[in-house]
Design goal:
about 400 residues, alpha+beta, 3 domains, seven-stranded antiparallel beta sheet, six-stranded mixed beta sheet, elongated, binds zinc ion
């Protein structure tokens, strides 16, 4: 290296840092090889441990600090921050309206819409078609294609409607124990507003993916339950949700997570029907069903949330607090965090806390603690998040 008359020179070096959030670095240099070889940090106080020292115990200057002789310099502390991109989707409403562009005895066409083949007649779901909303007769849908829905043979839609009439396709809620399921209309986007605060402690900045990743009208489904075996129902949901996550494949260079607003969980045992069931208003599929190598999927169940809020008479503010906490909790599962029961003075201490059933009624009492859950991970969980190569 060429030094000028004052003893200074320039040399570029590329330093490759590790990529785990919260890792700290200092880069130090000296012209003299003997000085370089003696550079070290110390154990002990912050002042010692966060500075670079020469072998003869001089503090290596940083920033505007005056030079030492022989010359050595160090950078200020460099901390790795990572970005975590969030993809948010949500379901459309439990009905579809429009004006038909084609009509036969047993089918209706709407070329302005694009339907999916399982949109109206899969997962044991009763969807009906009223081909002309100026009258009340409706017909059960038995098949769906991209632009056409079919009703059963023996029906004749043209007796009550003609091409161009306003139609409505609607889900008919079954008269069973879910009959108190009252949530209607568009399913909202899950609120990701709590993520920034919670993940900042792990040196992670949370950002929403651009609007091209955002789908707020994915086809509505009730709960994907076609069996008493919940693994079958989860598999139904898994096959469905896979179509909509666009932030794949996950890579160490690009950290992404996914959360979808849905109506109800595929698992019947956590939907607050009946009310004294211990309700889980969100879930994350971490263990992929066999044959599906893929990332995690989180879902927030808006009917469960409505039901819980009604049961415990939560205010709008409390309901919003629970929603925010749910999203942080579920995204915590993307980093393989486990549940814990840690409470202080009867209040959960952290976001991965999950309610437990109690012995005495009301056995679901711990649900009342949900609005009190802080948007904080335990230090142990922060360490776990920071050690993951991708969430
Ligand atoms: Zn959980």
């Amino acid at each position: 290296m060429n030094l000028n008359e004052k003893g200074y020179g320039v040399r570029e070096v590329i330093v490759i840092l590790s990529r785990q959030p919260g890792n700290n670095f200092k880069v130090a240099g000296a012209f003299d090889e003997g000085v370089r070889n003696g550079l070290h940090i110390k154990e002990g106080t912050q002042e010692q441990a966060l500075r670079v020292w020469t072998s003869d115990n001089k503090r290596v200057p940083e920033g505007n600090e005056p030079d030492i002789i022989p010359i050595a310099r160090a950078t200020e502390l460099l901390t790795v921050w990572r970005r975590l991109w969030v993809e948010v989707d949500s379901m459309a409403a439990d009905f579809v309206t429009g004006n038909s562009t084609g009509l036969t005895a047993n089918s209706l066409q709407d070329i302005t819409k694009s339907w999916e083949e399982d949109q109206f007649n899969s997962y044991n779901e009763p969807w009906d078609l009223n081909p002309n909303t100026r009258q009340t007769q409706a017909f059960r849908i038995v098949d769906t294609t991209t632009v056409r829905v079919y009703v059963g043979a023996g029906n004749d839609l043209t007796t009550v409607a003609q091409v161009g009439d306003p139609y409505c396709i609607f889900y008919t809620f079954p008269p069973d124990r879910s009959s108190d399921d009252e949530f209607r209309g568009e399913v909202p986007d899950p609120d990701i507003g709590g993520l920034g605060e919670a993940f900042r402690e792990a040196y992670i900045e949370v950002l929403l993916l651009p609007t091209t990743y955002h789908q707020s009208h994915i086809p509505w489904h009730h709960n994907f339950r076609t069996s008493d075996d919940s693994s079958v129902n989860i598999r139904n949901f898994y096959q469905f949700v896979q179509r909509y996550r666009q932030s794949v494949p996950e890579e160490n260079d690009w950290w992404t997570v996914y959360v979808l607003g849905i109506y109800e969980s595929p698992e019947a045992n956590f939907d607050n029907d009946p009310n004294d069931e211990l309700c889980s208003p969100g879930f994350t599929i971490e263990d992929k069903p066999p044959g599906f190598p893929s990332p995690e999927y989180s879902a927030i169940c808006f009917e469960h949330l409505r039901d819980l809020a009604a049961q415990w008479q939560w205010s709008e503010g409390e309901q919003q607090a629970v929603l925010k906490a749910l999203v942080v909790h579920e995204i915590g599962h993307h980093s393989d965090l486990e549940h814990n029961k840690e409470m202080k003075d009867g209040v959960p201490t952290n976001i991965m806390w999950a309610p437990d059933r109690e012995l005495d009624p009301p056995k679901d009492r711990q649900e009342t603690l949900m609005p009190l859950t802080p948007l904080r991970f335990r230090p142990k969980d922060i360490n776990e998040i920071r050690s993951k190569h991708k969430p």
